[in-house]
């Protein structure tokens, strides 16, 4: 029998939250009723090893254990839940169990949009991609870090990953499945960002969404800053040009995880409140900023390395 004692506080819990009580005494929050950022971690295993991975993979056999908990959690989530994430590790390592999990969510939460973060590589095999045919309310968020295969493969530390990812995206599209392309911004991805945008428009124009994402300084990233570090103000122009290039051609594009003050004002309309509420923080100087409420702020662990361009803005966004 699980026994939980000496909890320092439960103030972070609200009515409707779902927690798992582990035999070790750990209390794990699985779903937060008042949050719009809920994600189910299905495994910590991964077949890539990205240089800036915010949650470094672990070679542990955790799939069946995690799924046994998640399947008990899903029926407890209210049907008015707007979006639910599935993440890892790499969710496709579940094999056929991933489709079973999606079906379970569709059954209990028919109006909930499911956002699956995957490297997309396994979908290069049509026999696996076709198993996703017919699922509802699902978007696959897949990273693509360059239009040049060697750069992408280097970032994810896996040979042939670029080819597998691009083929996987096409295979998902063949089955009328929604795909989002995610590009983490750092010193390796920035030099070819505009070329990548052109590649996406010419070769992947069917994608539902493209997200340019500021990098989290957690996980592997702090250990690889010698090759990853670049101040957002130093890629301000190319980010503007890449964002407007896609937007002008009708693609749905967003900028995540960057403060408004380090982005060109021409693309403020594309900057989203993307940082999860439990990760979000601001600097003291942000208190005098007139657009703070419209700014995503900082990852809590990024506050120690703010851009040199961070400064309060004294103008308001239109609309």
CA-to-CA gap between the ends? 55 Å
Reading off the top of the CATH hierarchy, the class of the largest domain is best stated as Alpha Beta
Question: What is the CATH superfamily of the largest domain?
Answer: Aldolase class I
Low-confidence stretches: none
> What percent strand?
15-25%
The third-level CATH topology of the largest domain is TIM Barrel
Care to count the β-strands?
A: 11
SSE ordering: EEEHEHEHEHHEHEHHEEE
Mean pLDDT: 94
CATH architecture of the largest domain: Alpha-Beta Barrel
Number of helices: 8
Write out the strand line-up for the largest beta sheet, numbering strands in chain order.
3-4-5-6-7-8-9
Outline the structure in words.
The chain is α/β, with parallel strands linked by helices and about 325 residues long. It has 2 domains: about 1-30, no CATH class; about 35-230, Aldolase class I (TIM Barrel, Alpha-Beta Barrel). It is about 25% helix and about 15% strand. The protein has 8 helices and 11 strands. The chain has helices at about 65-75, 95-110, 125-130, 150-155, 160-175, 195-205, 225-230, 235-250, and strands at about 20, 25-30, 40, 85, 115, 140-145, 180-185, 210-215, 255, 280, 300. The protein has a 7-stranded parallel sheet with strand order 3-4-5-6-7-8-9, with helices on one face. Strand 3 (about 40), helix 1 (about 65-75) and strand 4 (about 85) form a beta-alpha-beta unit. Helix 6 (about 195-205) runs parallel beside helix 8 (about 235-250). The protein is globular, with a radius of gyration of 20 Å.
